[in-house]
Amino acid sequence: MTIKVLETDQWTSTGNVTAFSWKELKKNGIQCISGGDSKAARIMFGPLASFRFREVNETDSPSIGSVWFIKDDKGFPAIWKTRYDSSG
């Protein structure tokens, strides 16, 4: 079974992602995210910081440094799976 997810990098995920509806995020993209380390992610990775909608298998896991959000029953993103990069 496939699941629709919003994939972000771990830094973007610390922003206000859950303050926006799934529909708003699809329309406005990463530009509406602020707070946390989201601005730093856009500076480090440029306009293509990880923020994309995709379909994954239910048994899949995010790549290192990524966070997957799913749409909750109210139409807002909720963290589903994470794989934080703790190297340093």
What value does the Rg take, in angstroms? 12 Å
Span of the ends, CA to CA:
35 Å
- As residue ranges, the low-confidence spans are none
Structural class: alpha+beta
Secondary-structure topology with pairs:
Elements: E1 2-9, H1 22-28, H2 38-45, E2 51-57, E3 66-71, E4 77-83
Antiparallel strand pairs: 1-2, 1-3, 3-4
Summarize the structure.
With 88 residues, this protein is of the alpha+beta class. Helix content is 17%, strand content 32%. The chain has one domain (2-83).
Task: Describe this entry's structure for a reader.
With 88 residues, this protein is α+β, with helices and mostly antiparallel strands. The chain has one domain. Helix content is 17%, strand content 32%. The chain contains two helices and four strands. It has helices at residues 22-28, 38-45, and strands at 2-9, 51-57, 66-71, 77-83. Strands 2-1-3-4 form a four-stranded antiparallel sheet, with no helix packed on it. Strand 3 (66-71) and strand 4 form a beta hairpin. The relative contact order is 0.31.
